[in-house]
Amino acid sequence: MRTPPVVVVMGVAGTGKTTIGPLLAARLGVPYAEGDDFHPQANIAKMSAGVPLDDDDRQPWLDAIGGWAHERAGLGGVVSCSALKRSYRDRLRAAAPGVVFVHLAGDRSLIEDRMAHRQGHFMPTALLDSQFATLQPLQADEAGVAVDVCGSPENIAGRAVTALAALPGPAA
Ligand SMILES: Nc1ncnc2c1ncn2[C@@H]1O[C@H](COP(=O)(O)OP(=O)(O)OP(=O)(O)O)[C@@H](O)[C@H]1O
Ligand SMILES: [Mg+2]
Q1: Model confidence over 140-171: pLDDT tens digits?
Q2: Is the C-beta atom of 15 inside 6 A of ligand 1?
Q3: Can you say whether residue 151 is alpha, beta or left, with left for phi > 0 and alpha for psi between -120 and 50 degrees?
């Protein structure tokens, strides 16, 4: 039996992190944590005021997620975090070296369509533009997989499990 992985579910806003993350965790038999819940109060205040976070604001948030991932090392866990930039993922790996990423990847029109149907959230087109502009996909030296977000959430979670199982090394 392999050690259960510690997985960060990443991707742009609306790609399905909060939807797929718990399904993936259930399939792996590990707990799920919502990345948004790790923001310090100062970030929540900023976001509530409609002020975008800068990279300095993100450091304590990434460290808190990394801390959770570190605690789950050897036990397994799934946490959502957009982790759009390589530098954010480096920060997570610094705290939790064995972490693996599942990039929920999809084309813009599909994600835009899903966002349009989401209850209680409004996402301006410009925000999605900036998310795609910021996104730095996983690089060859980063442990992780990209999973296409077409199909049902259960189907996507199933493909993520299969892709993770095919990763080399003890981390997966
Ligand atoms: N595979 C899917 N099929 C259909 N609808 C989906 C699918 N995945 C997610 N959705 C819907 O798309 C919307 C966005 O999904 P979700 O909230 O999980 O994204 P997110 O990545 O967590 O976004 P955010 O970054 O804003 O937190 C939701 O309304 C969700 O129900
Ligand atoms: Mg979410």
Answers
A1: 999 999 999 999 999 999 999 999 999 987 54
A2: yes
A3: left
CATH (one of 3.40.190.10, 1.10.10.10, 3.40.50.11890, 3.40.50.300) for 6-165 = 3.40.50.300
Distance 79 CA to ligand 2 centre (A): 11
Separation in Å, CA 98 to CA 38, 77, 103, 166: 20, 12, 16, 16
Atom of ligand 1 nearest to the CA of 152: 1
What distance in angstroms lies between residue 94's CA and the mean position of ligand 2's atoms? 23
CA 111/CA 150 separation, integer angstroms = 10
How many CA atoms are closer than 13 Å to the CA of 152, on its beta-carbon side?
A: 4
Q: Is the pTM of this model over 0.70?
A: yes
Q: How many helices (H) and strands (E) does the chain have?
A: 7, 5
